[in-house]
């Protein structure tokens, strides 16, 4: 094969490599980095670099995602704990890789990317159901593929903190295909089964924040389907949310225990430092204290741990210290102050509010940032590698090849 022939085939090869990276989202990030390295090498061999760079320079999201990474990187200038700072910077590497993913993604292959993600989720769900059965029904079964972080984790590759948000988006995508894309009864049945399996997997996984994100997307999906009948949409979304929560509460002892812990943690947070919900409230309060002392530029991305230990020792010495406030907005504000907060708002809200074509994907363009806007209130999710990878990949794939349009108010049906 000549070099010219190879170069002509690289866009298709790289698109398949990108689909493989989508498959890695609920698995591990290490293979994704290897695939990305191969993608980058082929992207360079393909040539046409001036043309590619001009296309990237003309895309506002490129500047926003790189700017977000750059602000966090700049905060290293006023960070004392540089070792921890570089560890935190690495958690944001996928925002820098947005340039490559956006350049490689092909608009006509979006279905391929979503299918790769859903196929990987389906595999993980099958393994998780086996793990649940081995834990709760038939302990004599051989041990399955399971992450070893919590004895009740059922997810095969990542813990429930990262697994549940991935399930939330997968459930929405299955529901979207069910309601808007499936052309035959056979396909509708398949996506209905995947949606139900995803909801059940969320309940046995125990990731409460991911479940909240899923319920938000479920309500969004109902309104996208029945937006012209707001009362009916409100009643249906309420019924679906209630059905999922009540089904989990009465059908899973683990889920019921997690709900009780969350309620007790919120109601009695001042006296229950052993509960995660109690800890999250204190984390947020102390993080706000840190930001209040350094509102303009923050403390630097590497100094949150040490600053938190100092504030915690003064105000809440009986509580454990933590490396993040379990709220991504506060994590960025404490790290990079006002510039960080502005860039984070752009990262999340420009994809939500930006006008896009009525091409059947406009609903998904709203759903992806909606999920992150919700769950970032309860965890520092864009500093979680698998979740940030998911957000960057879907944003790149959803907006590649779309003509630049201004950010504007949402329109009916969009």
Write up this protein.
By secondary structure, this protein is mostly helical. 71% of the residues lie in helices and 0% in strands. The protein is built from 17 helices and no strands. The protein is globular. The model is unreliable at 408-414 (pLDDT under 50).
- For the termini, the CA-CA separation is 46 Å
Q: Give the H and E element order.
A: HHHHHHHHHHHHHHHHH
Shape: globular
**What is the count of helical runs?**
17
Question: Biggest β-sheet, characterized?
Answer: none
Radius of gyration: 22 Å
Report the helical percentage.
over 70%
* Helix vs. strand class: mainly alpha
Proportion of residues in extended strands: under 5%
Q: How many runs of DSSP E, i.e. beta strands?
A: 0
SSE order and pairing:
Elements: H1 3-24, H2 29-46, H3 49-57, H4 60-74, H5 82-90, H6 93-104, H7 110-136, H8 160-181, H9 185-205, H10 208-226, H11 230-251, H12 253-267, H13 276-293, H14 304-315, H15 328-353, H16 362-375, H17 385-399
Brief overview, please?
The chain has 414 residues and is mostly helical. 71% of the residues lie in helices and 0% in strands.
Based on the model shown, name its key terms:
0% strand, mainly alpha, single chain, disordered C terminus, 17 helices, 414 residues, globular
